[in-house]
Write a structure and sequence with these properties.
globular, seven-stranded mixed β-sheet, three-stranded antiparallel β-sheet, aminotransferase, pyridoxal phosphate, 388 residues, 43% helix, PyrdxlP-dep_Trfase, Aspartate Aminotransferase, domain 1, Aminotrans_V_dom, 15 helices, single chain, Aspartate Aminotransferase, domain 2, alpha/beta, 12 strands, PyrdxlP-dep_Trfase_small
């Protein structure tokens, strides 16, 4: 369905200023209705849906997603979220005592915990290389990052768009340099699909995970793991189920091992073609560009208001549809509650490396008025010395 006013496409509460699309996305009505149709079909005939029709629907969905991401569909498997995908790879990777996984100190916390856990089990080291903020240039970031490399480095794990800091990182250059150094590369692209363009074939990472339930707007719990063919058989299933050493194996061990994890409702995965159609019908790349312009227009102003500065040059190279404002406050958890309960603003307050960030996201339903509200709220919070 095509909308003249895209705000009408979403189910979000009208009394809340929603500036937190980055956390869990929000699903437009036509995609949500498709989701419910699949769920009803599941309940009409659960056995036929799960055993026969469901796998065919999954295949069709992966084919559409493969076209969208420029990947062969058999190199993609659906997972509930990117953290699940990171666990599959981290658990399976043949790390030895003394090996190192090179990352940054601005990664998503759940992924940090995953790598710390599996590296500790295997006697390896997870290296959180310090990134100087604010980033001055792409070259400065790359110089910072590669300081963490050593002869023990086996894998690079890095976000394409970071979570707390909301920054687009130069992943293409990281992949190219890593290949020259003989390293595996795993990209956390949780915020990428539907946010900025992604061509998995050109990027040539060994592993890539992305969320469809964020910027692609599918229902919650729909993400993917991409694995280059030469690594697929190296990955053990995170959940041992009927696909492991299957009685009737398919053409792909990768799909057998990771696609079916026992009884569950996988309807969210099946709506991905609907999400792609919705974006195409509503000129989503044009919408995204308008949102990025709004984010970049306001980021310097909001940072200046609280006495900080943007975390990178305010350009398309580093800033997409999210802007993170460094602030100082005594109690970030309390600040988050105050923003929602007193000011009716849904916005994350994040802490990373002892720095607090208020991160705003802009999507089709947002307007300049939402950022005016945020500006007035920040001024009021300063008067109340809740930020200083």
């Amino acid at each position: 369905m095509m909308y003249n006013d895209l705000k009408e496409a979403f189910l979000l509460r009208e009394d809340v200023t929603f500036l937190n699309f980055g956390s869990f996305g929000a699903t437009p009505k036509p995609i949500f209705e498709s989701y419910q149709r699949f769920q009803r079909e599941l309940e009409y005939e659960p056995v036929q849906f799960i055993i026969n029709k469901g796998p065919e629907y999954l295949k069709e969905s992966r084919e559409r997603l493969g076209e969208y991401l420029f990947s062969h569909p058999d190199n993609l498997v659906y997972v509930p979220n990117p953290t699940y995908a990171v666990n599959i790879v981290a658990r399976s990777l043949d790390l030895k005592a003394g090996d190192e996984v090179l990352s940054t100190d601005i990664e998503y916390g759940a992924c940090d915990r995953t790598w710390e856990f599996y590296c500790r089990e295997k006697g390896a080291t997870y290296v959180r290389q310090t990134i100087s903020l604010p980033i001055q240039s792409k070259e400065a970031f790359l110089a910072d990052f590669w300081k963490g490399f050593s002869e023990k480095t086996r894998l690079v794990f890095i976000s394409q768009i970071t979570s707390a800091t909301g920054l687009i990182l130069p992943i293409k250059e990281i992949c190219e340099e890593a290949k020259q150094r003989g390293l595996l590369v795993f990209i956390d692209g949780a915020h990428v699909p539907g946010h900025i363009s992604l061509n998995l074939t050109q990027l040539d990472a060994d592993f890539y995970t992305g969320a469809c339930h964020k910027w692609m707007m599918t229902p919650k719990g729909s993400s993917f793991l991409y694995v280059k063919p030469e690594h697929q058989d190296e990955l053990d299933p995170l959940i041992i189920s009927w696909g492991y050493q299957a009685d009737y194996p398919s053409h792909s061990q990768f799909l057998d091992y990771h696609q079916f994890n026992g009884t569950r409702d996988f309807s969210a995965y099946l709506t991905i073609p609907d999400a792609i159609d919705f974006m195409k019908m509503n000129d989503w790349w044009g919408v995204a560009e308008s949102c990025r312009i709004l984010v970049r227009k306001w980021l310097p102003k909001l940072c200046d208001l609280v006495g900080s500065e943007p975390l990178a040059p305010v350009t398309d190279e580093f800033i997409g549809q999210m802007g993170s404002i460094p602030v100082r406050c005594g109690n970030p958890v309390e600040l988050k509650h105050i923003l929602y309960n007193e000011y009716k603003i849904e916005i994350p307050v994040m802490v990373q490396n002892n720095q607090v960030y208020i991160r705003y996201s802009i999507n089709a339903f947002n307007s300049e008025e939402d950022l005016n509200i945020l500006e007035k709220t920040l001024k009021d919070l300063k008067k109340r010395t809740l930020i200083f």
